[in-house]
Amino acid sequence: GESVGLHLPTLSVQEGDNSIINCAYSNSASDYFIWYKQESGKGPQFIIDIRSNMDKRQGQRVTVLLNKTVKHLSLQIAATQPGDSAVYFCAENMGRGYQLIWGAGTKLIIKP
Amino acid sequence: NAGVTQTPKFRVLKTGQSMTLLCAQDMNHEYMYWYRQDPGMGLRLIHYSVGEGTTAKGEVPDGYNVSRLKKQNFLLGLESAAPSQTSVYFCASSEALMNTEAFFGQGTRLTVV
């Protein structure tokens, strides 16, 4: 099976709250992880990435946490907005030249 | 700056027909990719290219062929379409291979009947 998976296929969050999207991976050799956002009818859009020599990386309103001990990745979105409604994908890579392995995605729903 | 443009956006094929999907990028990227996306699954790599004149197989290459005659264009061909190839196809490009941000087109929804 796929080495990258998600704990929750759908996540509903109140507007203004923080969102946490989780991702588990099984390949301990993976050294690069990336998050994409896909809005309905569009192609995936890069959010943030992280390499295995880091455990945290921050972007604009987003933070990715990497826990190599338990092979877990999470994407935190601060102050969730209606425009954050999308499917979020995590993907992993074992190194240069290897293919990205994508998870199945988590749908984030924003409640007004 | 258009980014990555795919044509067509929608297509319906009969089993056994052939077609070509065109991808064009204006970012001067060396690396280009073709993915397919099926319901409830992540993207799966079909073929990719590390530069003009080169192609390589991805995770699910069977039934597809590709060509990269010009740096800015990456074509995906289906020689004899099958219902199992009903999917949404995405083209992407990037500055580096795999371990970096990729820019995606809007997708082509293909239905094979």
Helix-strand topology string of chain A: EEEEEEEEEEE
Distance between the termini of chain B: 36 Å
Share in helix of chain B: under 10%
Structural class of chain A: mainly beta
Shape of chain A from CA axes?
globular
Name the average pLDDT of chain B: 95
Q: Write down the overall geometry of chain B.
A: globular
- Report low-confidence residues of chain B grouped into runs of 5 or more: none
Q: Tell me the helix content of chain A.
A: under 10%
Q: Summarize the main sheet of chain A.
A: 6 strands, mixed
Content-based structural category of chain B: mainly beta
Uncertain spans of chain A = none
The assembly state of the depicted protein chains is heterodimer
Task: Write up this protein.
The complex is a heterodimer of chains A (112) and B (113). Chain A has strands at residues 4-5, 10-14, 19-25, 32-38, 45-51, 56-58, 62-67, 72-77, 86-93, 101-102, 106-111. With 112 residues, chain A is mainly β. In chain A, a hairpin with a 6-residue loop joins β4 and β5. Chain A is globular and about 40 Å long. Chain A contains no helices and eleven strands. The mean pLDDT of chain A is 89. In chain A, the strands form two sheets. In chain A, strands 2, 4, 5, 9, 10 and 11 form a six-stranded mixed β-sheet that branches. A five-stranded antiparallel β-sheet of chain A has the order 1-3-8-7-6, with no helix packed on it. By secondary structure, chain B is an all-beta fold. Helices cover 0% and strands 50% of the residues of chain B. Chain B has strands at residues 4-7, 10-13, 19-25, 31-37, 43-49, 56-57, 64-67, 73-78, 87-94, 102-104, 108-112. In chain B, strands 2, 4, 5, 6, 9, 10 and 11 form a seven-stranded mixed β-sheet that branches. In chain B, strands 1-3-8-7 form a four-stranded antiparallel β-sheet, with no helix packed on it. Chain B is globular and about 35 Å long. The chains are: A mainly beta (112), B mainly beta (113). Chain A binds chain B through residues 2, 4, 32, 34, 41-46, 49, 89, 91, 93, 95-105, and chain B through 4, 40-45, 58-59, 90, 92, 97-107.
